[in-house]
Amino acid sequence: MAVTRTPFIAGNWKMNLDHLQAIAFVQKLAWNLSDAKHDFADAEVAVFPPFTDLRSVQTLVAADDLPVKYGAQDLSAKDSGAYTGEVSGAFLSKLDCAYVIIGHSERRTMHAETDEVVNAKVVAAHRHGLVPVLCVGETAEDLEQHGASAVPVAQLRGALEGVDVSKGLVVAYEPVWAIGSGQAATPEQAQQVAAALRGVLAEIAGADLAASTRILYGGSVKAANIAAFMREPDVDGALVGGASLDLDEFSSIVRFKKHVGA
C-alpha cells in the first residue's frame, strides 16, 4: 500500500529579520497563500525564525489563527541550569513550536557540533514534544573522498542512536557544497541520497515509519527548481534558506504544484 507523505516546505531564516519584520513577513505570507487559495493540507508550510522572534510569531499565529507552522533553529541538549546563552526545549514547547532544526551544517561547522551532540539534541527535542528537523549532508571534500550518501548516512545513524523515531522526525538532506552556492544538487543526486537515508530509517525504525517519515532537500532551492525535486519519489519537501526571506519567491516555492504543474 502506498504511503502518502504531506509535502513540507520549511523556511530557515538563519540570522535574519527582527521580531517586527517577522510579524510582517508571516502575516503577508499567510495572506499571499490564502489569496492564492493554497491548501495547507496539500503542502505544509513552516518558518524557522531567530529565537527573539518566536514569541511574536506565536502571538500572531494564535491571534489570527494562521495555518503557518513555526519552529526554532536550534535548542540545547539541557533542559535548564547554568548554561548561559542556551535555549531549552521546554521554552520552545511553551511557545507552541512544532519543530526545531537540529544539526544544521552551520552548527556542525561553526559550532563544532558532533553526531553525539546532535543525538543529545534530538533526544531533548522529543523530551519536550518537538519534532526534530534533522539535517545531514556532506561537503565537496566528503563527496569526493567517500562518495554519494556515505557521510549523510553515517550522520543519520549517529544522530538516531537510541532514538524513538515514532516520536516524530523530519530528515533534511543538505549537501554543504550546494548551500548558498546557487548551484543545487541535481534532482537525481537528491533522490539517490534520500533513498539511502530512507533505507537507514527502515533498518532503525522499521519499514512503516521509514515510509511515513518526510525527507527534505535543502541547498539553493528556488521556485525555478523545486518542482524537479518534488517529482522524485523520496523527496518530500524542501528546507529553504535564502529564498525563504523573499516573500514572493517563498510563496511560489510553497505553491510548487500549482505554478509548475508538478
From TrEMBL:
The active site is at H104, E174. It is an enzyme of class 5 (isomerase). Keywords: Cytoplasm, Gluconeogenesis, Glycolysis, Isomerase. It catalyses: D-glyceraldehyde 3-phosphate = dihydroxyacetone phosphate. Involved in the gluconeogenesis. Catalyzes stereospecifically the conversion of dihydroxyacetone phosphate (DHAP) to D-glyceraldehyde-3-phosphate (G3P). PANTHER family: TRIOSEPHOSPHATE ISOMERASE (PTHR21139:SF42). This is Triosephosphate isomerase. It comes from Agromyces bracchium. The gene is tpiA.
